[in-house]
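Reading a protein record of the kind used here takes only a little practice. Think of the row as the fold of the chain written in a discrete alphabet. A record is reproduced here so that you can trace the correspondence yourselves:
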Amino acid sequence: MNSERPQSRERPEAREQPDEAAPDGRGRPIGRRVFLGTLGLGALGVAAAPVLQRGLESFLAGASDKDPTGLTGLLPNGGGFRYYSVTSSVPRKSAGTYRLTVDGLVDRPRAYTLADLRALPQTRMVRDVQCVTGWRVPRTPFEGVRLSRLLDAAGVRATAGAVRFTCFDGAYSESLTLAQARRADVLVALRMQDEDLGHAHGGPVRLYVAPMYFYKSAKWLSGITVTEDVEPGYWEERGYDIDAWVGRSNGRDDEPTN
């Protein structure tokens, strides 16, 4: 998740010869024009950095969306995140086409539009994001609707014990116990880093489970189904822990994110 700067290649004819030492042993002072030019380049670099960063993130996100190998997920970028998908491509949803269904062991099933979710009270939290593969992004803001609010609105039945999440990539799934799902630090997230969730980050809506490894925070969320028991998700079926508390699962000792 950490950015790396590519090494520049210098042509031999473009190399400058080292300055000769001044008679008193100190380096030769730079001229006024060189000094002012250096300041100008520095200011330009500071101003351009956010634009260049957004461009890099956009490129990597677009490449990963068309990469069936998943190798682009190994490329670091300056935003700190790596882009993962378990499918070769993911359809895009707009505000007009997005729907989030809440069903299963509930009295009042419902389908929410993006406008419906935005109209509900929003909770903002800032936590570290920790991936089970080792990378970490500190102090990342997320904002959205507490999952417990949607569950309460649906009327969870007494026989319920868990919640299953499905995604519109057509493959990914996750689960939480009902007690975990009702935690105040579990969101149906609409915003990340104080911006609307982009497609590469699982937008327009994703799950965010702050105290657990990031694979529990399912991207491209489309379904919330209340069930009797926990059903292993995509990565749990492949050996990951079902209870994915940061620092207390998957054989890792990372610092907790909460």
Notes: Strands lie at 100-104, 110-112, 123-130, 136-146, 162-167, 173-177, 186-192, 195-196, 206-209, 221-227. Helices lie at 32-65, 114-119, 147-154, 178-181. Residues 32-65 form the longest helix (34 residues). The radius of gyration is 24 Å.
